[in-house]
Amino acid sequence: MMVVKALNTSKLIRKPVMVTRGGKTFQQHKWVRPEDMPAPQRTNMKVEVEGYPDETKGEQSEAVKRLLDPSNQKPCKRDELLQPSGDIDTLYKMAEEVRADFRKVMEGLKEQLGASELLSRPVLKNKERVIEKMKEDGAKDASQIYDIDGHTLVFNDLESLSKAVDFFQKDPRVMRIKNYYANPTPLGYRGVNINVKLPNGMISEIQLNTKAMIEAKENYGHVFYEVAREAEGQLPPPPPPAPYHYAVLAQKKLYAFAWEVSRGQQDSANLSASLFDISLPLWSMSAKILESHGSSWLSERTRKRFQDFGSRAKGTSSLSKNLNDSKSEIEGMSKSSRIDKYTALALHA
Question: Which strands sit side by side in the sheet containing 150-155, from one edge to the other?
Fold first, then answer.
């Protein structure tokens, strides 16, 4: 069973601090107790959430054991995984050349590997976003961009997914396999990323994942990811880092739940409603802080997606009634009390 710890007064919190040494300024963290911090700072601190999935609970097949084995990867150094060209326009032309054939191959693999669904990009990845990502990564060219086109195979269970990884391990066209089931990201996201060389020499991406994890990522987690990514560049305040921390917390809780569903430890019958119930209080907390302090640092695209997500969540979540019922109560509170109220709702979702 997953145990989630968050903002507990008996738990130390990592607070970011700026340190200057040798003429250089960089960020470090120090451990503090929440009760020792002034109330205004408590809303701006980094919230730590830890998950402890019991990987050994219940019987596991050999296939699932292999999937969770950290050595079940196919490593390749990044400087050895280079596109045939570093020119972004050239890569887009190459992607178009093989796009139809790539799709046909993936449709065949869906049937062969027993995937329940094949998700494909309706169009090639937005070029402006690729350029933006290159700038963020400090890349000199596009030679290490692999997701201009890509496909995701969705599986109903870990057993089938694990056997698919075994299949790709033996495929000579596969250059790298990154197994995030065995080594999840700090946010708790799990999946398998595969880089494969296409007939014209271009390197593209295939992802393998469970329905629950894809649902959590694509329909819920990504909007929080965008808020966190844009807020991260603004730390330390202004603007206040609280929206970043709650966006991070939302992703951690979403992926922890999706992992439990993938493992059969949670009921998948009402997956969407459950993910909304996790998301809505955290969205509300971020929205209130943005409302109080402004959101000019968010891009127009992310601001709109964040607002649209809230409208959709309020119409779906079983928590929306409780939030609406307490609306007048919350609006009558002082600013610090409102923050505490929404924090309590968020952390106990």
Answer: 117-120, 150-155, 203-210, 192-197, 174-179
User: What tens digit of pLDDT does each residue of 63-79 get?
Assistant: 999 999 999 999 998 78
Distance CA 160, CA 244 (A): 36
CA–CA separation, 307 and 295 (whole Å): 12
- The encoded tokens of residue 36 equal 């020792």
12: three-class secondary structure by DSSP: coil
DSSP per-residue letters across 55-72: TTSS---HHHHHHT-TT-
Same domain (yes/no): 181, 268: no
**In terms of Cα–Cα distance, which of 156, 152, 130 is closest to 143?**
130
Give the residue numbers spanning the domain of 178. Answer: 62-210
CA angle 212, 218, 221 (to 5 degrees): 90
For residue 162, being part of any structural domain is answered with yes
Contact 171, 224 (CB under 8 A): no
Task: Examine residue 279 and state whether it is found in any structural domain, yes or no.
Answer: yes
Spatial CB neighbours of 18, under 8 Å, sequence gap ≥ 6: 25, 26, 27, 28, 236
What is the spatial distance between Cα 46 and Cα 29, in angstroms, rounded to a whole number? 10
**Is 273 found in the same domain as 136?**
no
Regarding predicted confidence, which is higher, 92 or 35? 92
Residue 209 tokens read as 């994942």
Q: What is the DSSP letter of 74?
A: B
Comparison of pLDDT for 27 and 308, the residue scoring more: 308
Query: In this structure, are residues 114 and 155 in contact, taking their beta carbons and an 8 Å threshold?
Result: yes
User: What's the total number of domains in the chain?
Assistant: 2
Question: Do residues 135 and 222 both lie within one domain?
Answer: no
